[in-house]
Design brief:
2 helices, single chain, mainly alpha, rod-shaped
Length: 102
Amino acid sequence: MNKYGDTVDIVMGYRDEIGAKISDLEKQTDDLSSLQSKINPLQAQVSDLGRKMSEKRKVVAKKLSPQIEKSLAELGWRKRNSRSTSWRRPSRPHPASTRSSS
């Protein structure tokens, strides 16, 4: 009995304390299981919505891409090469070349 207390009452009190802690842990486990059962369908729903949004974004990107490329070309931007998806800014004249000579 010395390990948990000197009297039966102290040992029984310790037993009750441990029993309460076990009960709390079991309740927390049940709560966790309940929350997980609510989370799982929501995760599936978010994943499905993300997939649908990505598909729609790709459709819109295909429609907008030619318009954006046309606008960039009109502004003087050029593709880096024929297969590239990156663009480069139009070259600007050097500031010294824009000055009038006196």
